[in-house]
Amino acid sequence: MVIFIKPELILTPGEILENKGIYVEVDTGRIIDVKEYVGKSDINIFLGPNTVVIPGIINAHDHLLGSYWPRVGEGPHISWKPWDDMLKSSEVYKERSKIPNFYLYVLGAYKNLISGVTTVSDHIPHKVNQEFIDKLPVRVISEYTLAHEVSSYDLKWGDGVEIEHKRAVQNNWPFITHIEEGFDEESMKGIDYLESYGALTDHTVMIHGLALSDEDLDKISKAGAHLVTCPISNYFMFKRIARLKEWFERNINVSLGTDSPMSGGMNILEEAKYLKMAYKVKYFQDLDNRTIVYMVTKNPAKAFRIQNKVGRIEKGLFADLVVFRLKGNDPFGSVVYSWFNDIEMVFIRGIPYYGFSYYKEVFDKFSGIVDYSKAIIDGKERIIVGDLEGYVKTIWNFVGFKKHLPFLPIFIKD
Q: pLDDT per residue over 40-93, tens digit each?
């Protein structure tokens, strides 16, 4: 089956395309072509004026197991460890622990989906998430190796930095680790440790990097390694954000993530706006909206070595697409300044997974492929893959009351 999706504008994201649409082969989930309408499609989706389509957003750092609320353990801290200790001794953590892991993953997946995220990097050992990720309504990266952090007091994920990095190189996967998430002497040796293991290469994806020195950044740039920033979590835990201007000046590939909602932003949309604001406060300069859109599309696709699958709107790639309402003269700004009700539809592999109920006729054409339900999100009726309302009610049963989660603003009638 071939579908044709026609918005007012397409951000590839490298180009702004007008008067063109996207042809998708649903059986493969891949884009056939991006061009003007020439017929030859089974389903036509004309989105109308004031719509802009971008590649499905990639959340470059989440801890889906931590999908809960509220935040716990506000800093400033010297490292991540005091925050972790506060989290695990809190009443909120005890409450969260009543929910089985699968349902926490469901919460995290839907949190991402309704904010336009189609691919998530879940930084956790494979043995934790491998039984869940194929059952979730978003794509979770499965081919990676990892360490929790490069320090003596990390959580000992994986088989050690050296082995995990070598495995990543052999399989052409990313090696993912937290780096210099803090300012104690141990944290600030992170790059030195990576070098000693021979693990600072273009396969290396590092999260946070708050204490990275100019010398560290020069080494990262030379190695072609990648950095991910989570500004809301960083400010909550440490009262500062990373030295992003210095990262950009060295042409380091930088991506944006949310971290867990128990320390970070409620979703990637909040992170984008916060990043814009925090950068202005720190450097008295505007961070270009195009740069931020790159940080959630093509940049993380490159970092996680999946640029032949996602991150751009291009022939041969998966048709992961997000439709935003176009506001003003800057289509990139329409993405950066968006919120829940600015997202019209989300497609994964060419299939609509989420959207306003006035697209019901479109969803009906896929009802034999995907199961849908209705949900009121942020006051507006949506159609969404799976049974979100049922999952939320189940979670209420686990915790014993109607838990409000602002990253999942669903209204359920009594």
A: 899 999 998 999 999 999 999 999 999 999 999 999 999 999 999 999 999 999
Indicate whether 400 pLDDT > 80: yes
Report pLDDT digits (tens) over 281-294: 999 999 999 999 99
Q: Would you give the end-to-end CA distance of the chain in angstroms?
A: 40
For residue range 197-229, list pLDDT tens digits in order. Answer: 999 999 999 999 999 999 999 999 999 999 999
CATH fold, domain 2-56+311-370, is Urease, subunit C; domain 1 (2.30.40)
- 3-state SS, one letter per residue, for the chain: CEEEEECCEEECCCCEEECCEEEEECCCCEEEEEECCCCCCCEEEECCCCEEEEECEEEEEECHHHCCCCCCCCCCCCEHHHHHHHHHCCHHHHHHCCCCHHHHHHHHHHHHHCCCEEEEEECCCHHHHCCCHHHCCCEECCCCEEEEECCCCCCCCCCCHHHHHHHHHHHCCCEEEEECCECCCCHHHHHHHHHHCCCCCCCEEEEECCCCCHHHHHHHHHHCCEEEECHHHHHHHHCCCCCHHHHHHCCCEEEECCCCCCCCCCCHHHHHHHHHHHHHHHHCCCCCHHHHHHCCCHHHHHHCCCCCCCCCCCCCCECCEEEEECCCCCHHHHHHCCCHHHEEEEEECCEEEEEEHHHHHHHHCCCCCCCEEEEEECCEEEEEECCHHHHHHHHHHHHCCCCCCCCCCEECCC
Choose among 244, 179, 249, 253: nearest CA to 223: 253
Give every CB contact of residue 149 below 8 A, 6+ residues apart in sequence. Answer: 80, 155, 177, 178, 179, 181, 190
pTM score of the predicted model:
0.98
| Location of each CATH 2.30.40.10 domain in the chain | 2-56+311-370
Could you tell me the fold of the domain covering 57-303?
Answer: TIM Barrel (3.20.20)
